[in-house]
Design brief:
It contains ten helices and 19 strands. With about 400 residues, the chain is of the alpha/beta class. It has two domains: about 15-180, Glucose Oxidase, domain 1; about 190-400, 3-Layer(aba) Sandwich (Rossmann fold), CATH 3.40.50.
Length: about 400
């Protein structure tokens, strides 16, 4: 059954009462709880709850992806955040067991314009509302996400509270948002890293060995490495450099992950100790750890980069890739010693640094997700470059 776009009556406010009745009628009576999103600056958005009940806190951000909501929900990089989707219709293809990036949804809350309760896709196992409810995720539909996105774009990402139920006064939720901890200086990696090392893939023979430092690694990254015929070992975020090197890697990948990289000083320390001792490739948060280890300066972006339509130019070739991004912090391009570190990529939306490489050591990183299918495969070549670094260092060591 197709979901039709909700109609807005001219001249009427987008308040919840008539929207609640419409949503309940559309869903066969299943959506009945009030949903509220309250921001620390006092702005409140009311709608209809369609996930779990309760109250959650997080930073409100928006994602411009048109599809892939299940990947967004399960991406560990979103831990600590309430995500609003700018695309208006969400849930139309349901959820399944394959399109996940971790073992559970990682977001603190989910906000959409119109939830589709009747998914239509051969792979669908559960409606999105059932999936969110089963995993304890508070979600709100019938929200004016265009107004919300414009507000966040103008005011910046901020602390927020999302609630499902009729007994949550908006004023109290605003005060709770103002009292929230935020993301700056907070270690969110501890919430998403693996508890112990494990081998993801081992083809045997003389395969290259990639060790992945798990700061919240997406499964797509592991699949890309395994598809190249590598042995892939994943280790927890607090694994020391000595412990990583004891695994005899041909190279180390520093994964994506959530939050402020300066709130994870042990990861920066480990990265600094690994530089020059094994090839390094960093993705997103891993890129930021490499940048900090090389002396770069970090700043928080006003509203971040989140979506699957961000153009990035590789400066050496002029090549432009359409990329998937998810980060709220960025390294200052002019904060590095140019004799040591080269900025390799720029985000063409705001000209921020989107890639680095060391000029003399096998170290490279990007501030986006080459494993994601944004272009759809524009950036996959970066895994090939990581493989080349690993093979080159193995050959050099063999002839030393």
């Amino acid at each position: 059954m197709a979901c039709r776009p909700a109609r807005r009556r001219p001249g009427r406010a987008a308040g919840p009462p008539h929207r609640v009745r419409r949503a309940v009628a559309q869903s066969g009576g299943r959506l009945s709880m009030k949903g509220v999103l309250a921001l620390e600056d006092g702005r409140v958005f009311e709608g209809v709850a369609f996930g779990a009940g309760g109250v959650r806190e997080g930073e409100i951000v928006f994602n411009t992806t048109m599809t892939g909501y299940q990947e967004v929900l399960t991406d560990p990089s979103y831990n600590g955040q309430i995500v609003a989707m700018t695309y208006p219709l969400i849930g139309n293809y349901g959820t399944n067991e394959q399109d996940v990036e971790s073992d559970r949804p990682q977001v603190e809350g989910f906000v959409v314009r119109q939830y589709c309760p009747f998914p239509s896709n051969f792979a669908s196992r559960w409606p999105l509302a059932d999936y969110l409810a089963a995993n304890g995720v508070v979600a709100v539909t019938e929200v004016d996400t265009r107004a919300l996105t414009r507000h966040v774009r103008d005011r910046g990402a901020m602390r927020a509270v999302i609630a499902a139920g009729d007994d949550h006064p908006p004023e109290a939720l605003v005060e709770r948002a103002r009292a929230g901890r935020g993301l700056v200086g907070v270690d969110l990696v501890r919430n998403v890293t693996c508890p112990e090392p494990y081998v993801y893939a081992d083809p045997g023979g003389d395969a290259l060995h990639a060790v992945v430092l798990d700061f919240g690694v997406k499964r797509s990254i592991l699949r890309c490495l395994a598809a190249m015929g590598m042995k892939v070992t994943v280790v927890p975020a607090r694994t020391t450099a000595a412990e990583v090197l004891a695994l005899r890697p041909d190279g180390v990948l520093l994964s994506n992950g959530p939050g402020d990289p300066e709130g994870v000083p042990y990861a920066v320390r480990t990265t600094r100790e690994l530089i020059g001792r094994t090839p390094l490739f960093g993705i997103c948060l891993g890129h930021e750890f490499i940048g900090l280890a090389l002396g770069g300066v970090m700043r928080k972006l006003k509203f971040g980069h989140r979506g699957a339509n961000h153009p990035v130019r590789e400066l050496a070739t002029g090549r432009v890739c359409i990329t998937c991004q998810n980060h709220g912090f960025n390294l200052e391009a002019d904060s590095f010693d140019d004799a040591e570190v080269e900025v390799t990529h720029l985000n063409l939306n705001d000209m921020t640094a989107a890639g680095l490489r060391h000029r003399s050591l096998p170290v490279a990183s990007v501030q986006y997700h080459p494993e994601a299918s944004a272009g759809p495969h524009d950036a996959r070549y970066l895994f090939g470059r990581f493989e080349e670094m690993m093979r080159s260092e193995r050959n050099r060591a063999a002839h030393a």
